[in-house]
Structures are given as structure tokens and as C-alpha cells.
Specification:
single chain; 445 residues; FAD/NAD(P)-binding domain; Enolase-like, domain 1; 25 strands; redox-active center; flavoprotein; FAD/NAD-bd_sf; EC 1.6.3.4; oxidoreductase
Length: 445
């Protein structure tokens, strides 16, 4: 019996999850993996930890390698660029780094091409020391720049997760750090202002100079960047790190496959595109939001892994639907932890959802406990149905596990009223007898 052939384009989190699922569960599958990079499986979320010397080296940020897939029977091409795909003939046309051309036919195709950094057409962007953070090689370049004594002032453009994290890393390396964003605060896509005001204070208290409502307009310098020009002033800088955001990498299929509003490949709950023989996973594809109850775009590594698993099972012959996601996420800066899932109040209003919210702030543990910190929580719920659609939490305590409960609550359409008398245990080592989750729920209108 001849094997069915699946070609996977892209071998980071989504592509790796798809390949492992096929190789581990479907012996009738011939798997071909193609990637233009020199490496695979890099955990980009650890770049700031490494650059900021919170971990000693980058080696453990790679969790697998080419040899592991070859041992499972996959054919894998690294440093190989897919130049085009003939979707009618089901052929992938590639070029290796040495110029050699090759083709691979397929029965099924999984696109795991990820995302690319947004690179605005700003004068001077070709200067040296104007960098991005996406690939392992980008991290190496930024790390090498940070090691130079002459690099004293670092400008970070973009106060999302990557921008805030690399700003902390640069400060930990002893640099003067300026953080810019066109928005009025940091992390606006994940947290309401009640939370981001605290994070902004954490950043400022640790010596990071905040420049919000300020738009980068030009980079000046002879060979390398020397000045950042914004709509509000000019700043002497030695290194610029762009962390503005990402766009779906849709170049291979944008003229053949149906696209979402932002250019991502539009997929169903099986990760299947408008071409029944083509699946798309990870940052290049859409995903279903249980909070909004509709298709959306949420680029997170955890979502990428789940989508790769779902696509592979369907390709392998097991009908499997995605259960949707909540977009759960977290950040820890100078020891201050913030976690969220689902929608904020601000995002809900943008989407036209009528929501209410309840919030509470208290000590994590009883006041007599010596090691203690304040905790903030906000729960967002739909006004009419009263189903929970989002939650945010913050503290110097590790309160991260609590957000998983809210993620499940959103998935299962739990109402705020159901949460009011939830059985939450009490022990002074962990929490208060009137738990902040309970108190927030009881405070709801």
C-alpha cells in the first residue's frame, strides 16, 4: 500500500506539532518538511531572558532538531526556500541555499509559514543597528550589539509584549532605554488601563524612559543609526529595536486561498483552507475565539501548537475539530506578573459586545503572613448572557495558574453568577479565606 504524502512548509512550533503528530500516529504517512532557516524549534519567547542574562545561554531554547525528525522517517530540507506552489498540480517548487532547485509533490499540504515583523517604510531603516526580533539570528544580532560598550542608549519601538520584554532586557544589560509607542500606554491589546498603569510604573521605577503617543518618523546616521526622529522630538540613540508587531506570512498562497481581513489564511475548525487539500496552521492562519464566538487572529505559540495537532490529525484521517481558544497569555517584568485571557473591556467595546466588569484588589494571603503582596483581578462578562468573556490578574505573587481556570470558564460559557460560590480552598500559605476570585465574582452587579 503506497503512502500518502504530506508536505509541511515551515518548521517552527506549528509545523513541528503537525509533523510530530503525523509521524507518531500515522504510519501510512510520508512526511516532507521544508524550511528556509538554518534551525528549527527556537522558543522566541525566551530571547529577552537570554539577552537580559536572566538565563545563561540560548542552547536550551531549542527543543528539537533536524536529526530527531529524520530518525522518525521524515525527509527534511533546511535552508531551502519554497519559491512557489502549483496548487492545481499539487507541486511545491523550492531552491536550496546552494542554488539547487527541487520539487516535491503532495497529497496534502500544510502551510506553517508563520508571521513576519511589520517593517514600516521609515527613512533610514537600512542603517546598521536598526534591528528586529523574530528569529534566533535576530536575537544573536541584538545580543552582540548589547555587548558593545559604545552602545549606551537603546530605543525600543513598540510597547507590546516583545517591546516591553526587550526593554527590560536592555536595562538589565546596563543600557539607557527609551520605550516608544504610538498608543497611550503599554500592552493595550491584552490589558485594560487599570493594569497597564501599574506596569508603566514598574517600567519607569526601573529606569525605563517612556514615550507614549509618540510615532517614529525617521532614523538618522552616517552608516549606523545615531538619531531617532519622532513626531515629538529627536533622540540620540546607538541601537533601535523594532517590536511593532507581526503580519501573517501569506506570500505562497495569497493568490489562491481565501484570506481573512488581515491577510491570514482563512481556515475552518479542522484548519482546512478554501482548498480542501491545503491546511494552514500557526501565525499564518485564523483561529476561532470562544470569547468573541467567531473567527479571529491570535498569534501565540500555544495556539500554533494546537492548530498543528488539529491539522495533522485531519490530514491523517481522524476528523478532529478545534475547540477554539481564549488567547491566554502572560508577562513578567522586573518580577511583576500580569496574566490575561479572553477579552478586555476595551477590546469588547471595540467589537461591539455589551459587557460589564467586576474587579477586586487585596493581599494574596492573610495580613499576618510575612511574605505577601497585593493582587488585582478584573473579570469581564457579557451584559445579557452574563457569560464570562475575559479576565486579567496582576501581582508580584505568582498568580498565573488562576488564569487557566478563567480560560476554561470562557470555553465552557460559565456565567459570572456560577463563579460566586465556587469551591475555592483556603490555607494561609496560599490565599485568604475570602479569596479575591470569590470577592470579585460576588461584587458583580
Amino acid at each position: 500500500m503506497s503512502k500518502l504524502k504530506t508536505v509541511i512548509v515551515g518548521t517552527n512550533h506549528a509545523g513541528i506539532a503537525a509533523a510530530n503528530t503525523l509521524l507518531d500516529n500515522y504510519p501510512d504517512q510520508e512526511v516532507v518538511m521544508i524550511d528556509r532557516n538554518t534551525n528549527l524549534s527556537y522558543l522566541g519567547c525566551g530571547t529577552a531572558l537570554w539577552v537580559g542574562r536572566q538565563i545563561e545561554s540560548y542552547e536550551n531554547l531549542f527543543y528539537t532538531n533536524k536529526e530527531a525528525f529524520e530518525a522518525k522517517g521524515a525527509k527534511i530540507y533546511m535552508e531551502t526556500t519554497v519559491e512557489r506552489i502549483d496548487f492545481d498540480k499539487k507541486v511545491v517548487y523550492c531552491k536550496k541555499h546552494d542554488g539547487t532547485e527541487l520539487t516535491e509533490s503532495y497529497d496534502k499540504l500544510i502551510l506553517a509559514t508563520g508571521s513576519a515583523p511589520i517593517n514600516p517604510d521609515i527613512p533610514g531603516r537600512e542603517l546598521k543597528n536598526v534591528e528586529f526580533l523574530k528569529l534566533f539570528q535576530d536575537g544573536q544580532t541584538v545580543d552582540a550589539a548589547m555587548a558593545k560598550a559604545e552602545v549606551k542608549t537603546v530605543a525600543v519601538i513598540g510597547a507590546g509584549y516583545i517591546g516591553v520584554e526587550i526593554a527590560e532586557a536592555a536595562k538589565r544589560r546596563g543600557k539607557n532605554v527609551l520605550l516608544f509607542d504610538a498608543a497611550e500606554r503599554c500592552l493595550p491589546n491584552y490589558y485594560d488601563q487599570w493594569f497597564t498603569d501599574d506596569m508603566d510604573k514598574v517600567l519607569a521605577d526601573n529606569g525605563i524612559e517612556l514615550h507614549y503617543n509618540e510615532l517614529a518618523k525617521e532614523y538618522k546616521g552616517s552608516e549606523q543609526v545615531e538619531t531617532l526622529v519622532t513626531d515629538k522630538g529627536e533622540y540620540a540613540v546607538d541601537l533601535v529595536i523594532n517590536a511593532i508587531g507581526f503580519r501573517p506570512n501569506n506570500g505562497l498562497g495569497k493568490d489562491h486561498l481565501e484570506l481573512f481581513a488581515n491577510g491570514a489564511y482563512l481556515v475552518d475548525l479542522h484548519q482546512q483552507t478554501s482548498d480542501p487539500d491545503v491546511y494552514a496552521v500557526g501565525d499564518c492562519s485564523t483561529i476561532f475565539s470562544n470569547a468573541v464566538q467567531q473567527t479571529t487572529y491570535i498569534a501565540l505559540a500555544t495556539n500554533a501548537v494546537r492548530s498543528g495537532i488539529v491539522a495533522a490529525h485531519n490530514v491523517g484521517g481522524t476528523a478532529l475539530e478545534s475547540i477554539g481558544v481564549q488567547g491566554s497569555n502572560g508577562i513578567s517584568i522586573f518580577g511583576y506578573h500580569m496574566v490575561s485571557t479572553g477579552l478586555t473591556v476595551q477590546e469588547s467595546e471595540k467589537l461591539g459586545l455589551k459587557v460589564k466588569h467586576t474587579e477586586f484588589e487585596d493581599l494574596q494571603k492573610p495580613g499576618f503572613m510575612k511574605e505577601n503582596n497585593s493582587v488585582k483581578i478584573r473579570i469581564v462578562y457579557e451584559e445579557e448572557s452574563r457569560r464570562i468573556v475575559g479576565a486579567q490578574m496582576a501581582s508580584y505573587e505568582d498568580i498565573s495558574m488562576g488564569i487557566h481556570m478563567f480560560s476554561l470558564a470562557i470555553e465552557e460559557k460559565v456565567t459570572i453568577d456560577k463563579l460566586k460560590l465556587l469551591d475555592i480552598f483556603f490555607l494561609p500559605h496560599f490565599n485568604q479565606p475570602y479569596n479575591y476570585i470569590t470577592m470579585a465574582a460576588l461584587s458583580a452587579e
